[in-house]
Amino acid sequence: GKHYGVYSCEGCKGFFKRTIRKDLTYTCRDNKDCIVDKRQRNRCQYSRYQKCLATGMKREAVQEERQRGRERDGDMEYSSGVNEEMPVDKILEAELAVEQKSDQSVDGSGTGGSSPNDPVTNICQAADKQLFTLVEWAKRIPHFSELPLDDQVILLRAGWNELLIASFSHRSISVKDGILLATGLHVHRNSAHSAGVGAIFDRVLTELVSKMRDMRMDKTELGCLRAIILFNPDAKGPSNPGEVELLREKVYASLESYCKHKYPEQQ
């Protein structure tokens, strides 16, 4: 349909609206000329926003729409309506329902490829354990079970690794130089380096765990992040990618509403 002056998909409409309403700024990791197409539009937000402007999307159209919404309904009613479509309390319930708790821990200093203390073995065992709960978690996310069964399988297959990484990264916020697995085992950074997986381990610690810690990300925000990963319109093969993208946009909107309520001083 036509959004903010040009014909675009629901995904780009939502992206442009969020950018303008929150006055977001982006940076490009490359040369500010990244490819922005249906398959790669989520890879560089800077280039995506520039393409929105280049195709004729109007900032003032977003601002006028927001003003009309305020006059008609009021901001609180708008936020409530958004949350009803994708209730964050249900997303939090999904996280809590599959949360694994264990007091078991190891120092992670073992050696040997098949040793119980081998970090790679421990991580694989924890992943196996979490895969069983991943389907249960997804079915608790609002509207996921309403998708065709084949599409549910496609989305879980496309996102299972990122979903698990997000979970153990958040679980590891309180761990110093390591990660806490679903099995209750601690894997220390030194152990990961000894096992030859230090590079990816450090990347997880730097790009995920430390940032989640700095943001003080709560479990509702984690659940929304994981729901955004789950509703991936770029996964190969869903029967209606537009519907998946619309669900992702609803998660974005509910997360935005939640954060406005939680962090009013940042408005």
TrEMBL record:
The keyword Zinc applies. Keywords: DNA-binding, Metal-binding, Nucleus, Receptor, Transcription, Transcription regulation, Zinc, Zinc-finger. It comes from the Eukaryota. InterPro entries: NHR-like_dom_sf, Nucl_hrmn_rcpt_lig-bd, Nuclear_hormone_rcpt_NR2, Nuclear_hrmn_rcpt, Retinoid-X_rcpt/HNF4, Znf_hrmn_rcpt, Znf_NHR/GATA. Residues 83-267 form the NR LBD domain. Residues 60-81 are annotated as: Disordered. Gene3D superfamilies: Erythroid Transcription Factor GATA-1, subunit A (3.30.50.10), Retinoid X Receptor (1.10.565.10). Residues 1-64 form the Nuclear receptor domain. GO terms for cellular component: nucleus. GO terms for molecular function: nuclear steroid receptor activity; sequence-specific DNA binding; zinc ion binding. Belongs to the nuclear hormone receptor family. NR2 subfamily. This is Retinoid X receptor. It comes from Notophthalmus viridescens. The gene is RXR.
